[in-house]
């Protein structure tokens, strides 16, 4: 039985046809994959379905009746739940309040705190998630916040559940927990839409698939069991995807640009030692909660360093903030959270890229010549292959991959010499991921010192020259990378589970 149908849906933006006659059919008791490259229209379609965007053509049908949603609240009230790729929790609220936000229990006109705790605990238990409903969401890790988002969507008892990159920021164990919940929803007769760039997950849990390319459906509701991985990738990109082959690159013998010696932080790091030389990619690997992103932020002055020494170009430094890191030490940081920290969504592409170099371009009385800014922006748009209608386009209207390129462009424009890149390809399709890998490789070949943080072990093994493994905010050991996946994965995993600090 068809629970939901998006029939020949169009969506237009200035200079862009984001959706061109897209059809999506979701059946009761089925998990349906929605696939496509970044910019193919997946997130736009979800925003149309959930009332964030009004379609410019076509129709939406729920349970046999045509519907029109003017807001996400109307969509949710009709029985459509959604977990967006970017988190939408309210920072000032608790875990329980966020989960039950659509229908907060009350007693005699007041919010019933006891009922919130009881009801939220039920949905947390559905995910086997051991969290206190009274805990502020600001204290959650990225993975925990993502799972709370899923509990929030389940709490409205949706007949249709849309999952947009739900596993992008969670561990494999947490993903398996989510897949068990998805299987239960399927057995209960609900329709689940699963959007992911991880094809191994798609083939593991999905029954049918719709593939979008350039805003149009190139496959509508095809049985996934009839397709191979290469056939799916071919549908997504228009050709069979070839394995990435990177050119040879030699790390020059040179003193480190960045060194940490016995570093401790207010977040709990202790005795952290690592170094990065010019032209070198040093990987920082560990499970979610290992403290990798927190260490990066401490290096930028966003957390207090309580012990040890940080040296840049051989000199001990105390970095006060991101501005100090960039202006005085030429350190840039491509954050994992591009939506909230990486780019200004409501500002133009031009402004986002130029923001780090206004001081350099500024003339007398603070005037920034438009011609100089435009030339600089055009250089990096072309270099990184950023797909835009014009430099004036709002960054929030770009695909996730292009937003990530804009985030990277602003640091390259600032002529950084040390670049910290945190989860560069989360939520990015296979072809764009390859483009990022080539770009990072080329940046190192041109002398940039790169500290790479990624939870994607194949990505780490593809790119890093050395892999530093962390657990519980400490360095477990270091592995020289021979780029052989089988041997490297075994050595890295052994370090993650090893007791005490070891070398490999």
TrEMBL record:
Q: Name one GO cellular component term.
A: plasma membrane
**Which PROSITE patterns does the entry link to?**
ABC_TRANSPORTER_1, ABC_TRANSPORTER_2
Transmembrane helix found in the keyword field: no
The ABC transporter domain covers which part of the protein?
4-239, 246-497
Q: Where in the cell is it found?
A: Cell membrane
List, in alphabetical order, the Gene Ontology terms for molecular function in this entry.
Answer: ATP binding; ATP hydrolysis activity
Q: Give the CDD domains listed for this entry.
A: ABC_Carb_Monos_I (cd03216), ABC_Carb_Monos_II (cd03215)
Q: Which UniProt keywords apply?
A: ATP-binding, Cell membrane, Membrane, Nucleotide-binding, Repeat, Translocase, Transport
Per the record, membrane topology reads:
Peripheral membrane protein
Subcellular location, principal: membrane
- Give the PANTHER family listed for this entry: CARBOHYDRATE TRANSPORT ATP-BINDING PROTEIN MG119-RELATED, GALACTOFURANOSE TRANSPORTER ATP-BINDING PROTEIN YTFR
Q: What is this protein called?
A: Monosaccharide ABC transporter ATP-binding protein (CUT2 family)
The organism's taxonomy opens as:
Bacteria, Bacillati, Actinomycetota, Actinomycetes, Propionibacteriales
């Amino acid at each position: 039985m068809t629970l939901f149908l998006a029939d020949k849906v169009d969506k237009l933006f200035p200079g862009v046809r984001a959706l061109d006659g897209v059809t999506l059919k979701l059946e009761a008791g089925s998990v349906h994959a929605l696939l496509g490259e970044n910019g193919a229209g997946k997130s736009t379609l979800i925003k149309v379905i959930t009332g964030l965007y009004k379609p410019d053509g076509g129709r939406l049908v729920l349970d046999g009746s045509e519907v029109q949603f003017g807001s996400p609240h109307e969509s949710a009230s009709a029985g459509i739940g959604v977990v967006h790729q970017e988190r939408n929790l309210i920072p000032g609220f608790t875990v329980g309040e966020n989960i039950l936000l659509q229908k907060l229990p009350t007693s005699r006109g007041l919010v019933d705190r006891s009922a919130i705790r009881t009801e939220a605990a039920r949905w947390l238990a559905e995910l086997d998630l051991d969290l206190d409903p009274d805990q502020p969401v600001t204290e959650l890790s990225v993975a925990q916040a993502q799972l709370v988002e899923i509990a929030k969507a389940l709490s409205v008892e949706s007949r249709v559940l849309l999952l947009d990159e739900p596993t992008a920021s969670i561990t494999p164990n947490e993903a398996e927990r989510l897949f068990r919940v998805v299987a239960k929803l399927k057995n209960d007769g609900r329709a689940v839409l699963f959007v992911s760039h991880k094809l191994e997950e798609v083939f593991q849990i999905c029954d049918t698939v719709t593939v979008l390319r350039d805003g149009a459906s190139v496959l509508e509701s095809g049985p996934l069991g009839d397709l191979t991985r290469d056939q799916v990738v071919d549908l997504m990109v228009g050709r069979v995807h070839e394995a990435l082959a990177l050119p040879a690159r030699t790390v020059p013998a040179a003193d480190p640009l960045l060194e940490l010696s016995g570093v401790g932080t207010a977040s709990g790091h202790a005795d952290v030692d690592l170094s990065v030389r010019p032209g070198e990619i040093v990987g920082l690997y560990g499970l979610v909660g290992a403290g990798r992103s927190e260490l990066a932020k401490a290096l930028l002055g966003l957390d207090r360093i309580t012990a040890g020494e940080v040296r840049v170009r051989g000199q001990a430094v105390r970095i006060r903030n991101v501005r100090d890191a960039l202006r005085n030490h030429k350190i840039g940081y491509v954050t994992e959270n591009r939506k909230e920290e990486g780019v200004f969504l409501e500002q133009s592409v031009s402004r986002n890229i130029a923001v780090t170099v206004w001081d350099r371009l500024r003339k007398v009385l603070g005037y920034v010549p438009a011609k100089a800014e435009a030339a600089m922006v055009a250089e990096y748009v072309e270099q990184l292959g950023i797909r835009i209608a014009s430099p004036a386009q709002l960054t929030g209207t770009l695909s996730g991959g292009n937003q990530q390129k804009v985030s990277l462009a602003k640091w390259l424009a600032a002529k950084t010499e040390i670049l910290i890149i945190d989860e560069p390809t989360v939520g990015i399709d296979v072809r764009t991921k390859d483009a990022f890998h080539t770009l990072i490789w080329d940046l190192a070949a041109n002398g940039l010192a790169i500290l790479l943080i990624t939870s994607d072990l194949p990505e780490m093994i593809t790119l890093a020259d050395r892999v530093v493994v962390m657990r519980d905010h400490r360095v477990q050991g270091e592995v020289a990378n021979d780029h052989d996946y089988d041997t490297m994965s075994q050595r890295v995993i052994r370090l993650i589970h090893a007791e005490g600090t070891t070398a490999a």
